[in-house]
TrEMBL record:
Domain called MrpA C-terminal/MbhE: residue spans: 689-773
Residues of the MrpA C-terminal/MbhD domain: 613-676
Gene3D superfamilies named in the record: NADH-ubiquinone/plastoquinone oxidoreductase chain 6, subunit NuoJ
Full protein name: Cation:proton antiporter
Topology within the bilayer: Multi-pass membrane protein
Lineage start: Bacteria, Pseudomonadati, Pseudomonadota, Alphaproteobacteria, Hyphomicrobiales
Length: 788
């Protein structure tokens, strides 16, 4: 049931698409002020969603929608609960500052209007993913995020690296999207509904279904590719070729968390199984460790942050798979904290690059005086990322450690992996925030100075938000965390959230260990960077290189296959086409084992048998014909015999059509053959004749067997009764065949007429072609003209 204001969420979902259409015009008219106007769109969406938080926090969920494609059960619907509301708040809230940031970062860029348009399309797609209730609608928005991210990542399309990164992201996430669509269809079959709220209310239906294994694999493929889980993690760091506003938005609140959202959304109906609690922690843990280890190797600020995002996504997936509500709570809080500090740090990195001319951490230092606001934002965000009090990142770390440690069975392993990952995350956070600003002043390519307000408004606001949520942990827990935990776990959850632990426990001890080891790793980060670099250099091969090898293999195979099947030979085209038809006819019978039984001929009269024999004689004449013209005429014998059989069995209209088609076919083909310079005899080799005979026989036998199967089926008189009853009352005609062709199937008839017309024009063109003259005729022709 809707309540006041929920209906406006539909407009909130559509607003970014309207902004995308207006963005180029507004940018051209308003120039540097366009960002302020455009940022009002996500800001208003954020305010609207914020007005719904108290109702959602009280435990209410809402589903409402409109019919979109009712024949296929597709609705344009939304589902509001703690999970979708928090995600939508992050998308719109952080999106507001990303739009402002883009206004300053791309100031004066000739394509800034197009960039804003792409950005709003991306924003609308993400809102659609997290708010959609119908699974097919969710998939459409899911794929739209892949398309729009392709446009954003490849925005600087003149650079080879940008184009490669965009194509790589599209291929990986698009392939996962196809798997996801199959998974959604299977969910609809197993769960009996395509509406998310109904699926979530189905209890153990999916878990008990025989399709659960297939659904799990397909959903994981979709989620893992989108959220860059190992071994699909390589596309995300490469996406750093995009402008920094895209990186900040992509990594903090949007596309990369779509997979995490999906896993969290389906956890109540697919979680708590052996597959779920094994595969998710396994791949999430590997992704966490791979992300921080490779991140230590980097010196580019954006790449360091990108790999920590990979690691954070792995941590979220690992905790989502843990069969422990407290671990899920830790994942929820960490997701919130990560969105805030990662958005701030990415904008900080972009500001340094924009104002100092480089992102290389080895070429930066002493910027604290030149860029004090950016420095403050970096420190505040990094403290939250490192998990230090009183920031929300500290709260997240305490809760996730508590949940991981107390998970039955795999708790120790999950906690150990989380500890190792957080240690290196601490070191990377300190390196990103402190290395560029502390120490002696380093000469940079550009004279470093503080950027305009558009560049630092977002970083400082998001960093301070992380501090505020930590200080107000109790309110944050009630309004945001507990409703989301309830949605993810499928159980009502109402425990209070505290900034500081109430007693000494293993979670606090692990936090102390994390900080101590993190400080040590930060002080030795140069040594660790060299060590990791040597190890990875020795290993050499990785998924990123494997992607290039796979694409190269696909391109080479496609080229050779195309040359094979599209070599310009009509004979090859005909063989492949008819061979494909034969395969399509026989494979279903072979797979299902549903072979037809022979049709009896005991009721045929002697004159009916005569025309059957005549048709066989015509077929024999075609096969043994000495030239093509004779074969064409002989083919008419079979066609006329079939036309007479139609008449004998009570189908005069069909018989008349067959007579006309056969007559025209024989006349036209014979005429064309006499006008073209074709070899009169069959010059095929014996092997080619056998191949063609096998294909032709396969198609003929397959069609015959299909017809025998159809004849054996019980007769369904629904259509004849419909046409008999309504042909006169609706179409005002008593001849059923004519009414069907002209009225009920009028568009089919128009299409057939168009085909005949095109064929006639083609025949006319062939008839007008003059045979090529031989060399002797060309020499004799002038002599004849002179004699005349």
């Amino acid at each position: 049931m809707p309540f006041s204001g929920v209906e406006a969420t539909f407009w909130a979902m559509l607003a970014p698409f309207v902004a995308a259409a207006l963005a180029p015009v507004l940018t051209q008219k308003l120039k540097h002020n366009a960002a302020w106007v455009l940022a009002a769109v996500p800001a208003l969406i954020f305010v609207h969603l914020l007005s719904l938080v108290s109702s959602v926090a009280s435990g209410q969920t809402y589903a409402l929608g409109l019919e979109w494609v009712p024949s296929y059960g597709v609705t344009f619907s939304i589902y509001l609960d703690g999970l979708s509301t928090l995600f939508a708040l992050l998308i719109s809230g952080i999106g507001t500052f990303v739009v402002l940031y883009a206004g300053g970062y791309l100031k004066g860029h000739p394509k800034q209007g197009s960039f804003f348009s792409f950005l709003f399309l991306f924003m609308g797609a993400m809102l659609g993913v997290v708010l959609a209730n119908n699974l097919i609608t969710l998939f459409i928005f899911w794929e739209l995020t892949s398309i729009t991210s392709f446009l954003l990542i490849g925005f600087d399309h003149l650079r080879t690296a940008s184009r490669r990164a965009a194509i790589q992201a599209l291929v990986v996430t698009g392939a996962g999207g196809m798997a996801l669509l199959a998974g959604f269809i299977l969910i609809g079959i197993a769960g009996g509904s395509m509406e998310m709220n109904e699926v979530l209310a189905s209890g153990d239906v999916l878990r008990d279904s025989n399709l659960y294994g297939a659904i799990f694999v397909l959903i994981c493929l979709g989620a893992f590719t989108k959220s860059a889980q190992f071994p699909f993690h390589f596309w995300l760091p490469n996406a750093m070729e995009a402008p920094t506003p895209v990186s900040a938005y992509l990594h903090s609140a949007t596309m990369v968390k779509a997979g995490v959202y999906l896993l969290m959304r389906l956890n109540p109906v697919m979680g708590d199984t052996a597959l779920w609690t094994t595969i998710l922690p396994l791949f999430g843990g590997i992704t966490l460790l791979a992300g921080v280890i490779i991140g230590i190797r980097q010196t580019d600020l954006k790449l360091m942050l990108a790999y920590t995002t990979v690691a954070s996504l792995g941590l979220l997936v690992m905790l989502t798979g843990a069969p422990n509500t407290v671990a899920v709570k830790g994942a929820v809080i960490y997701l919130l904290a990560h969105s805030l500090f990662k958005g701030s740090l990415f904008m900080m990195a972009g500001t340094i690059d924009h104002e100092a001319g480089t992102r290389d951490i080895t070429k930066l230092g002493g910027l604290r005086n030149a860029m004090p606001i950016t420095f403050a934002a970096a420190v505040l965000a990094a403290l939250s990322m490192a998990g230090l009090p009183p920031f929300i990142g500290f709260v997240a770390k305490e809760v996730l450690y508590d949940g991981a440690w107390n998970t039955i069975g795999s708790g120790f392993v999950i906690a150990l992996v989380a500890l190792c990952g957080n240690v290196l995350m601490f070191a990377l956070a300190m390196a990103v925030a402190l290395k560029p600003f502390l120490g002696e002043k380093v000469e940079t390519p550009k004279h470093a100075h503080e950027g305009p307000i558009l560049l630092w408004a977002g970083p400082i606001t998001l960093a301070l938000s992380g501090l505020a949520l930590g200080l107000l942990a109790g309110y944050a827990g009630y309004l945001f965390v507990n409703p989301m935990v309830s949605a993810v776990s499928g159980l009502a959850y109402g425990k209070e959230l505290y900034l500081l632990p109430h007693h000494l426990n293993m979670a606090l001890a692990m936090s102390v260990i994390t900080i101590a080891l993190g400080v040590f790793a930060f002080l030795r980060i140069d040594y660790l960077r060299g060590l990791v670099d040597r190890i990875l250099t020795t290993i050499g091969w990785g998924p990123d290189k494997g992607f290039d090898q796979l694409i190269t293999l696909v391109v080479r195979f496609s080229d050779r296959f195309t040359r094979l099947v599209q070599g310009g030979s009509m004979v090859t085209y005909m063989r492949l086409s008819f061979a494909s038809v034969a395969v399509m006819l026989f494979v279903p019978m072979m797979v299902t084992g549903n072979w037809p039984t022979m049709v009896g001929f005991e009721n045929l009269a002697y004159f009916e048998w005569a025309f059957v024999v005549l048709a066989v004689i015509g077929l024999y004449a075609v096969i043994t014909a000495k030239n093509r013209v004779t074969g064409i005429v002989s083919l008419g014998i079979t066609g006329f015999s079939v036309a007479v059989i139609y008449t004998l069995f009570g189908a005069p209209d069909l018989s008349l059509t067959q007579f006309m088609v056969e007559t025209l076919s024989v006349v036209i083909l014979a005429l064309v053959m006499t006008r073209l310079d074709l070899k009169p005899k069959d010059v095929r080799s014996k092997e080619d004749r056998v191949t063609d005979g096998v294909i032709a026989g396969g198609v003929g036998l397959g069609v015959a067997m299909l017809l025998m199967t159809i004849v054996r089926l019980p007769f369904d008189s629904t259509l004849p009764q419909f046409f008999t009853e309504y042909s006169y009352s609706i179409a005002h005609g008593r001849n059923l065949v004519n009414v069907i062709l002209v009225d009920f199937r009028g568009f089919d008839t128009i299409g057939e007429i168009a085909v005949v017309m095109v064929a006639g024009l083609s025949v006319l063109a062939l008839i007008r072609v003059r045979p090529k003259k031989s060399q002797s005729e060309k020499l004799v022709e002038p002599v004849k003209e002179a004699a005349e």
